[in-house]
Amino acid sequence: MRIGLLQCGAILEPLAKQHGDYPQLYAQLVGPGFDWSVFRVFEGDVPDDPELCDGWLVSGSRHGAYEGHDWIEPLEALIRDIHGRRPLVGICFGHQVVAQALGGQVEKFAGGWSVGRRAYDWQGEIVHLNAWHQDQVIRPPEGFETIMTNDFTTHAGLSCGKTLTIQPHPEFDAGFIAGLMDQVGRGTVPEPLLAEAEATLPQPTDNAMTGARLATFFRDNAR
After folding, report:
1. How far, CA to CA in Å, does 87 sit from each of 73, 90, 201?
2. CA neighbor of 140 nearest in space, from 124, 121, 159
3. Contact status, residue 4 vs residue 52, Cβ threshold 8 Å
4. Per residue in 127-154, pLDDT tens?
5. Mind listing the pLDDT tens digit for each residue in 157-206?
6. CATH code assigned to 2-221
7. Phi/psi of residue 37, each to 5°?
């Protein structure tokens, strides 16, 4: 099964050297049995055929979905073409831009940042995943069900047919979050939040379980 990675940003070079860039992180997350085609959409490489791959994954990014970059509009057009025709997964920025493309609303959240290991209610099951975001989906698109939530991020996961999106980062482990805090967070994220997040790092996350669920989602919805 071929997955098209719609890469919406690049990981900082020091972190990428240590942990890998998005293509490596997502391939590791969903596991074997998939071939990947990478489209660096943030550099203008936006494919125009939704059937080019068997499934699609929209990556994270340091950008905001509501920002006026010239690649966001064609990416949204592609998302609308893919939705309902091929399995589509969005993670963090991907979660947000998919929602926006399909009629939802994304904003810089007035409540601030969510950073580090967080608990989410995933359709009645409590899962723990790492977060790194300030933007949120405020209003889901029509027809979407909110499948993941917590007290801070109401719409942390959305689902509609062949489309599934989540706000947290199952591809980020504790070491990656620690690197983000050191290289990006200082001076950007309030220090009390960083200290709170740092205290969560030794605790386990459900990254592997989430990766397995995403792999199953791709396989089941490609049929």
Report:
1. 20, 10, 32
2. 159
3. yes
4. 999 999 999 999 999 999 999 999 999 9
5. 999 999 999 999 999 999 999 999 998 888 789 999 999 999 999 999 99
6. 3.40.50.880
7. -115, 125
**pLDDT at res. 194:** 93
**Residues 107-130: what's their mean pLDDT?**
97
Residue 55 has pLDDT above 90, yes or no: yes
CA distance 112 to 135: 8
Please state, as a whole number, how many other Cβ atoms lie within 10 Å of the Cβ of residue 68.
7
169's tokens: 């980062």
Which residue bears the tokens 């499934």?
55
* Token duo for residue 219: 């396989």
Classify the C-alpha dihedral 47-218-207-90 as positive or negative.
positive
Q: How wide is the angle at C-alpha 177 spanned by C-alphas 56 and 195, nearest 5°?
A: 145
Percent of the chain with pLDDT over 90: 97
CA neighbours within 13 Å on the CB side: how many for 6?
Answer: 30
Classified as helix, coil or strand, 76 is: helix
The position carrying tokens 């990675």 is: 5
Domain range list for the chain: 2-221
Sheet with 2-7: strands ordered across: 35-40, 2-7, 55-58, 88-91, 163-166, 157-160, 145-149, 114-122, 125-133
Across the chain, what does the average pLDDT equal?
96
